[in-house]
Every structure is written in C-alpha cells, then in structure tokens.
Amino acid sequence: MATLYFVATPIGNLEDISFRALRTFKEVDFILCEDTRVTKNLLDHYSISTPLISYHTHSGLEKNDEILRLLREGKNLALVSDAGTPGISDPGGKLIEFIVEQMPKIVITSIPGPSAVIAAASISGFPMDKFQFLGFPPVKNKRKKFFEEVAESRYPVIFYESRYRILKSLEELKKIDDTLSLVVCRELTKKFETIYRGIITEVIAAFKKDEMRGEFVVVARRKM
Length: 224
Ligand code: SAM
Fold this sequence. Notes:
This protein is α/β, with parallel strands linked by helices. The chain has two domains: about 5-110, Cobalt-precorrin-4 Transmethylase, domain 1 (3-Layer(aba) Sandwich); about 115-220, Tetrapyrrole methylase, C-terminal domain (Methyltransferase, Cobalt-precorrin-4 Transmethylase, Domain 2). It is built from eight helices and ten strands. The site of S-adenosylmethionine (SAM) has 23 residues, from helix 5, strand 7 and strand 10.
C-alpha cells in the first residue's frame, strides 16, 4: 500500500527542516509541490534530486487523477507546500480532502515541522493555552464580519495576511476596536524578521514608518 507523506518545510530559514523530512524526500518516488522553483531551491540545498510534480489550487481534475493513479500504482509520495505545514490555509488542504474522499484507506502520515501560525503563537506573549486561528481574511465580502469575530473573541486570534492587504486589514480592525493588543510577525525566521507589539494604533503607526514587504501573521487579543 502506498503512503502519502504530508511534510512540513521551512517558512524561511532553510535549516528549519527535520532529518525525517529529508530522509523521506530521498526515499519517496515523487514530491508533490506548489511551485517547483521554491521546492527545488530547498532540495538543491540538501542535494536531493527526487522528481517533482506540481499541484496548486487551479491544477484541476486531471492533476488530481494523476496523483490518485500514482497512489493506486503503489508509488510513495511526499506532499509539501511552498512553506510551512501543508494543508494549513494552502492548496494542500483541498488536495487532502479529495484524496481522503477518493481513497479512504490510503495511509497519510504527517512529518511535522514549521508552521507560521504556531511560530507566531509561541512568541506572542499572550496566554496561548486556547486560541483561534482564522486563516486569511476574506478578500472582498464579509470582511467586517471577519474582523468583528477577531475583536470579539474570548481567546487570542491569529490570522494570516499578505503584504498587499496588511495595512488595510489592520485599519479595518482598528475601526472595530482600537484598544486591541497586537503582535504582528513579519518575515518569521528570515533576514528581515520583525515583531511589532503594542496596542493596534501603535502598531499601525510603527508599520507606516516601515516598508510593507514580506509575509505577515497577526495575533490579536481583546482588552480584558
Ligand atoms: N501552510 C503554511 C503554514 O503552515 O505556515 C501557510 C501557508 S499560507 C498560503 C501563507 C501565509 O502564511 C503567508 O501569507 C503569511 O501570512 C504566512 N507566513 C508564511 N511564512 C511566513 C513567515 N516566514 N513569516 C510570516 N508569515 C508567514
């Protein structure tokens, strides 16, 4: 029976990879990845030459069928996302849903490692025994509802945001509650890692002074 390994990869620093992940990459028949350039960069760093197959949100049914065929032929596959733990707010999530539905008996194994949500939670300084993770804010509709959910939660809330919308999202959140405490983690594990901490108004002011480059995780906590 074939095994599908869901393998976590670095969220920036290429040294954040487990021995087991590297061994698995060498042992499987193929590695399924989002962007072949991103994954090739990681594999080259560790001199691994296992063939890659790309999948992404728009790959469509043909690609899904190809993956099912490989598994039915007994091929062992590793699946990675561009960064972090596959299946968490990325195209790996839809793919695993499809595979579990089509092949309920397939063995799927996790090879855990970095995830931006957990990295941010662990350094937030908020009580994290319980927290909510909401993924990305919607791009168009229901944004206000999303930010109300953030502001009203009893527990710290974590969400992802891109460089294009981070400031807009923080401004919208501020309109709902300008007393929220925030930790905004930019470029975790990378050269320009920056952690902004403070009341939302302070964080936005600090933000405006900097260039809005990179990737962001926001942790918000209601005033208690
Ligand atoms: N599955 C991934 C994980 O486990 O972290 C997340 C994939 S999601 C498509 C990508 C988002 O994660 C980015 O837009 C950003 O919000 C967050 N992210 C990923 N790497 C990051 C980093 N190094 N620093 C801050 N945020 C990061």
